Amino acid sequence: MLSRPTTERRLSELLARAQDGDRAAYEAFLTEAAGLVRSFVRKRLPPSMDAEDVVQDVLFAVHRHRHSYDPARSVAPWLYAIARHRLLDALKRQRRVWRRELQDEPGASGWPRLEELPAGNAPADPTGFGLLRHALEQLTSAQREVIHLLKLEGYSVSEVAERTGRTPSSVKVTAHRGYKLLRQLLEGSSRDH
Amino acid sequence: MTTDELVLALAGDLEPVRRLPSPGRRTLRFCAAALPLVALFLAVHGLRADWQRKLGETAFLREQAALLTFFTLSTWAALRSCVPGRDNWFVTALPAASLGVWLAFIASRHPGAHELGPSGVNCVVRMAAVALVPFAALTAALRRAPPLERGRAWALAVWSVTALGGFATQWLCTRDNAAHVLVWHAAPVVLAGLGALGCGAFRRRSA
Predict the structure, then answer these.
(1) Domain final residue pick, A63, A79, A101
(2) pLDDT tens by residue, B36-79
(3) Which of A30, A40, A92 would you mutate first to test chain B, the one with the most B CBs within 10 A?
(4) What's the rounded Cα separation, in Å, for the pair B89 and B91?
(5) What is the rounded end-to-end Cα distance, in angstroms, of chain A?
(6) Is A84 in the same domain as A138?
């Protein structure tokens, strides 16, 4: 948190100069504010959420509200009020995503889990689940794990990243390659039949 | 985009801004513009026949003073809610308390004045007519610095302008019994504010 009076005075002066159009002062203010907001957000955000997204959201809000700052007043309550509101909005958004994902849970949608799929490419397989299992077995273990967690277990990209120790981008790339291979395998199987 | 890139982009886009005056000063300006408008409305529609007698009636003046206080505090609170860091529970509590005082003044009128009487739809229409222009002005003022808590800010703005409408209506409507004033003058004010609060909460949930 912003506690030292000198830091606060400097930030206040920088923002006041930014209100008058001083770009260098604004850049210095935003850089320092980003650090303060980052530590504020990280303490309050679950590890599965990306703090940097919220920090950037706060910086946008600071930019939009910069004319509402009164240089005669302390900058900390102004900055942290914006940060708190943006953080709450981010948490609400995330909660909605989780709720939606829970509603799409395999059990709720009627989709079976991977281990429940019929084994092999059984000829008497009217559902096609056997084909799917056969295709899934052709994927790399990383692709299979990521697709299983995303599509069958219903986890979000950030949760899968956390569980598998990957970055969200790596999860997306792995899943994308897996989907591509699955599509090729399933299209090939349907042509064979 | 990384945060460092965003900082550079925002700093690159920087334009000088006109600082927002303090909520107190903005409230004074709004009241200074809204009250003459109400006076004009009253002049056009004609004051109630017994207005001179009403000027000597303490209970009536007390209610009007409470209503004007409610109007001023709601305006101040709505404008203050636009300033991050200055929007706390105290800001909303003050207008709510002044609304409570106004309602208590009406409810404490002498016994026997509790018959509802004929419909007061005209009073509601008059209140809405008075509130229309100030509401547009206050909306524009609120949009200059979008409030962080939109639902509460709009509820306070709606309270402010309907209180003004209520004030004007009291000088037009001759039906002074407590039941009529509570149902046709006060209830629309309370309900409009609660409605705005509900709409704000709904929009926030569905955003």
Answers:
(1) A101
(2) 999 999 999 889 998 999 899 998 999 999 999 999 999 999 99
(3) A30
(4) 5
(5) 65
(6) no
Flag the least confident range among A60-74, A79-93, A163-177, B185-199.
Answer: A163-177
Residues of B in contact with A27 (CB under 8 A): 7-8, 11
Residue A79 belongs to a domain: yes
Query: CA nearest B80 in A: which residue?
Result: A68
Interface of B with A in 125-184 (CB under 8 A): 144-146, 148-149
* Domain interval for residue A76: 5-101
Counting other chains too, the contacts that A58-64 makes at CB distance below 8 Å and 24 or more residues apart are A58/A82, A58/A83, A58/A86, A58/A87, A59/A30, A59/A33, A59/A34, A59/B3, A59/B6, A59/B7, A59/B10, A60/B6, A60/B10, A61/A85, A61/A86, A62/A30, A62/A33, A63/B10, A63/B13, A64/B146
Residue A106 lies in a domain: no
Per the structure block, which two tokens stand in for A17? 């100069």
Neighbours of A115 (CB within 10 A): 8
Nearest to A68 among B1, B16, B83 (CB): B83
pLDDT digits (tens, 9 = 90+) for A149-179: 887 666 777 778 877 778 777 888 888 888 8
What's the sign of the alpha-carbon dihedral B118, B122, B125, B130?
negative
Question: Rounded to an integer, what distance in angstroms lies between the CA atom of residue A148 and that of residue A139?
Answer: 11
Between A172 and A66, where is the model more confident?
Answer: A66
A20 and A94 belong to one structural domain: yes
User: Do residues A34 and A11 share a domain?
Assistant: yes
**Inter-chain touch B84–A82, beta carbons under 8 Å:** yes
Q: Pick from A40, A73, A101: which residue ends a domain?
A: A101
Please tell me the total count of domains within chain A: 2
CATH label of the domain that carries residue A155: 1.10.10.10
- The minimum CA-CA distance between B149 and chain A, rounded to whole Å, is 8
Q: What is the pTM of this model?
A: 0.70
Q: Interface pTM (ipTM) of the complex?
A: 0.76
